[in-house]
Amino acid sequence: MEVMQPFAMAESKQSPFQAPACDVCGKDAVVEQAYSGRILCGYHLEKSIRKKVSKELRKQLYLDKSKPTTVFVAISGGKDSAVLLTLLVELIGMRRDVRIVAGCVDEGIDGYRPPSLQCAIDLCETLGVEFISTSYENLGFHQMDEVVKRLPMISETKEGVSTIPCSYCGVFRRQGINALAKQVDADVVALGHNLDDMAQTVLMNMTNGDIDRTLRLAPHTDTPVDGLPPRIVPLRWIPEQEIHLLAMHKQLPLHHEECPYAQGALRWRYRDIVAQLEQDAPGTRHSLVRMSDNIKHVARRVEPPVQSHPTKCQRCGSPTSGATCKACDMRDLLDIDLE
Length: 339
Ligand code: SF4
Ligand SMILES: [Zn+2]
Ligand SMILES: [Zn+2]
Hints:
There is one protein chain. This protein is α/β, with parallel strands linked by helices. It has one domain: HUPs (Rossmann fold). 45% of the residues lie in helices and 11% in strands. It has helices at 42-60, 79-92, 113-127, 144-157, 165-183, 195-207, 211-216, 240-249, 266-280, 284-302, 326-334, and strands at residues 31-33, 38-40, 69-74, 98-106, 130-135, 188-190, 231-232, 311-312, 319-320. Helix 1 (42-60) crosses helix 8 (240-249). It starts with 30 loop residues before the first strand and ends in a 5-residue tail after the last helix. The structure holds iron/sulfur cluster and zinc ion (ZN) (2 copies). One zinc ion is lined by residues 313, 315-316, 318, 324-325, 327-328.
């Protein structure tokens, strides 16, 4: 039997030196799920994750039997997207009517992106998956290292402008993922968001009173967002820590470093809050995600989704609700003369 160390303490109140027994086979457990009461060894954790992801795929991924479906998987070299790609290959990769392509967006962050990009390439090679990539430079944006240099100067000259790198990076990366998906004519885009990510996003949207974002939150299977392939999030019920354990168990090539610009983003605050809530009241993360599903259901009952027809950005042609898209606005903002 495989041995995974260390025992997943964040899910457990027990000492790391007294691994309890798996509740299925009695072997040393690697995780105790406070939210479910289950205690699992590596083998049975993998089995349980596969089962949950397979169930989610059946709900989220619509395969049109009359034609092949191209699934574009956005990967980063990190654990979530590595586990997502691996499970997708295992669960649907053998189907003749499914084509899986993986792709990575290079943000231009020296010391962080090159090694993680290599991990993404290595993973695709091991799995025999087609790999594509693009960069902020290719897309006409500044590299993130350059954005970070420019931000203090911009905030001096313009009021109310975000000085947090992730605000820009998130918008540019979305453009990159859309461009890659378009390149391979994807029917669906799969993202590696885990349970913790989803719960943080739900709480952030609620704190902002942002019902639109709540309604547009992936998965989009039955409510496609116009102009873009629907996004699916098959890992949305799997806690981050269990994904990490599975990635170690499967010995996936992973880049473990954090992005040097990650700190400061508001998401980190939500990350701490959600983790604290989960510790105090196990199951909070699931409840938050279920809450957003329930809001979507209620909204649909009251007002069935109408196909919205976003206009095209005058600059780049991306779907937008205004004359130009947010990415183009941000590009303009950053295009200052550096003397
Ligand atoms: S942490 Fe922020 S700046 Fe770094 S890659 Fe992610 S979104 Fe971009
Ligand atoms: Zn077991
Ligand atoms: Zn645009």
